[in-house]
Amino acid sequence: EFYCTVKNVLDQEGFGRQKRGYRSIDEIYIKMTDPLFSKQWYLINTGQADGTPGLDLNVAEAWGLGYTGRGITIAIMDDGIDYLHPDLASNYNAEASFDFSSNDPYPYPRYTNDWFNSHGTRCAGEVSAAANNNICGVGVAYNSKVAGIRMLDQPFMTDIIEASSISHMPQVIDIYSASWGPTDDGKTVDGPRELTLQAMADGVNKGRGGKGSIYVWASGDGGSYDDCNCDGYASSMWTISINSAINDGRTALYDESCSSTLASTFSNGRKRNPEAGVATTDLYGNCTLRHSGTSAAAPEAAGVFALALEANPNLTWRDMQHLSVLTSKRNQLHDEVHQWRRNGVGLEFNHLFGYGVLDAGSMVKMAKEWKTVPERFHCVAGSLQDVHKIQSGGKLILTISTDSCHGKDNFVRYLEHVQAVVTVNGSRRGDLNINMTSPMGTKSILLSCRPRDDDAKVGFDKWPFMTTHTWGEDPRGTWVLEVGFQGDEPQRGALKEWTLMLHGTQSAPYIDQIVRNYQSKLAMSKKEELEEELDEAVERSLKSLLSKN
């Protein structure tokens, strides 16, 4: 007879999780026999489909250095993978795959007339489609292995299914790619539950032999009506949140913005050019030119990270975030509303694009020589627990002054992530706007208005708004929080808590170098400005003399 002890019993509630995809129907020479390769503008952009030449992931440089993802396994957590597809079969990792929707080892997509369950197969092709086989296109990391984790195709999501998926074979799987999340309807505030949070924490601490599982997340498709800081997966410190740009450098109309986005890759163009989408594998051995959404962006990032891991298998989950910050490029990304800015140490960022588009060539070169970042520390910088009223027509301005735990073991000198844990409610949650400014003067938009969010009861309860925009900064000094209402109708509310959490290191030699370079450039630009002013003054004097003569 066998006996076992049940430690805990949890009643699993059902909740919604949605796939992310926009559901509407010559300088570089690389020889590939794959028929769609020339259409994969996000790999090598020569101006296809009215795009901007040079606006791509710069994979050609990484491939040229010999990095193709060999030895790396990427898991696509989605609605399954057509692992019989001739462009995926040779790179399919059956050992690392599982179907948590049906509880079996065969994550094949369930058939529907509208091919709704093509999502995972399309994402898989972006990462690991084989090269030079005359089929479809080429994956970003075309020699990597891809695993299928089928977990999206059931009436409701549960915490156990999410946690099981995120923690599946963490010593075999290197990178987990997720192109889904809470409903992108502009009124949902949701994130991982208890078991999934624990699974993520275990993943970054214990996965890959202690180097940490790498979680790549699509930032969301709610467009300007939503804010990805209301998505607890995309805004988690343990995930790398990826937004998308289109083939001419603008944001897609469905792109959400938030201060937790780290970097960007590519999705379909705004113009109805049939070849402006993302070319990849499709169900039942087919190919497509129409994959889209931030769904398409996350797997591209996973592919770039696979190239970096091949260049340096010792990279930790934090190393990958640092490399993303340091090597992502502004390139030709632009937006009319959100301009590019520099933070206190000179790193250029954008509220929509994070630190820019991933650059595979730069990343593998830096990864190869990279030394693991120093130990990470956490400091509670301060907490305000009093009730502060908020009314339309004025802003609530609060400050926390901190020495960032100086003199203690958990002193933070160089920032990575910053969290503002906020409890606030209002007569209309969607009209709330929250900004936070660091002591070095970097302003992060923690929450934009969400015009479809009519909530008047729940508000935000100890919600961890996160920013990556102050990366590398010295957190010591005064932080400023601004909370107000925007919109035509008068609103009122109350902020009950603001706790400031600082996460980072006590040393970061490369940041010091960046600061020196930045200060040198500033000094040079000021010198040039003075010289220009002097030239103009001399010119004015000459003109004045000539007019008198």
Automatic annotation (TrEMBL):
<keyword id="KW-0165">Cleavage on pair of basic residues</keyword>
<dbReference type="InterPro" id="IPR015500">
    <property type="entry name" value="Peptidase_S8_subtilisin-rel"/>
</dbReference>
<keyword id="KW-1015">Disulfide bond</keyword>
<dbReference type="GO" id="GO:0043005">
    <property type="term" value="C:neuron projection"/>
</dbReference>
<dbReference type="InterPro" id="IPR034182">
    <property type="entry name" value="Kexin/furin"/>
</dbReference>
<dbReference type="GO" id="GO:0016486">
    <property type="term" value="P:peptide hormone processing"/>
</dbReference>
<dbReference type="GO" id="GO:0005615">
    <property type="term" value="C:extracellular space"/>
</dbReference>
<feature type="domain" description="P/Homo B">
    <location>
        <begin position="372"/>
        <end position="508"/>
    </location>
</feature>
<dbReference type="GO" id="GO:0004252">
    <property type="term" value="F:serine-type endopeptidase activity"/>
</dbReference>
<keyword id="KW-0732">Signal</keyword>
<dbReference type="InterPro" id="IPR036852">
    <property type="entry name" value="Peptidase_S8/S53_dom_sf"/>
</dbReference>
<dbReference type="InterPro" id="IPR023828">
    <property type="entry name" value="Peptidase_S8_Ser-AS"/>
</dbReference>
<keyword id="KW-0964">Secreted</keyword>
<feature type="active site" description="Charge relay system">
    <location>
        <position position="295"/>
    </location>
</feature>
<dbReference type="InterPro" id="IPR023827">
    <property type="entry name" value="Peptidase_S8_Asp-AS"/>
</dbReference>
<dbReference type="Pfam" id="PF01483">
    <property type="entry name" value="P_proprotein"/>
</dbReference>
<dbReference type="InterPro" id="IPR008979">
    <property type="entry name" value="Galactose-bd-like_sf"/>
</dbReference>
<feature type="active site" description="Charge relay system">
    <location>
        <position position="119"/>
    </location>
</feature>
<keyword id="KW-0865">Zymogen</keyword>
<dbReference type="InterPro" id="IPR002884">
    <property type="entry name" value="P_dom"/>
</dbReference>
<dbReference type="Pfam" id="PF00082">
    <property type="entry name" value="Peptidase_S8"/>
</dbReference>
<comment type="function">
    <text>Serine endopeptidase which is involved in the processing of hormone and other protein precursors at sites comprised of pairs of basic amino acid residues. Responsible for the release of glucagon from proglucagon in pancreatic A cells.</text>
</comment>
<keyword id="KW-0325">Glycoprotein</keyword>
<dbReference type="InterPro" id="IPR022398">
    <property type="entry name" value="Peptidase_S8_His-AS"/>
</dbReference>
<keyword id="KW-0645">Protease</keyword>
<dbReference type="GO" id="GO:0016020">
    <property type="term" value="C:membrane"/>
</dbReference>
<dbReference type="InterPro" id="IPR000209">
    <property type="entry name" value="Peptidase_S8/S53_dom"/>
</dbReference>
<keyword id="KW-0720">Serine protease</keyword>
<protein>
    <recommendedName>
        <fullName>Neuroendocrine convertase 2</fullName>
        <ecNumber>3.4.21.94</ecNumber>
    </recommendedName>
</protein>
<comment type="similarity">
    <text>Belongs to the peptidase S8 family. Furin subfamily.</text>
</comment>
<feature type="active site" description="Charge relay system">
    <location>
        <position position="78"/>
    </location>
</feature>
<keyword id="KW-0378">Hydrolase</keyword>
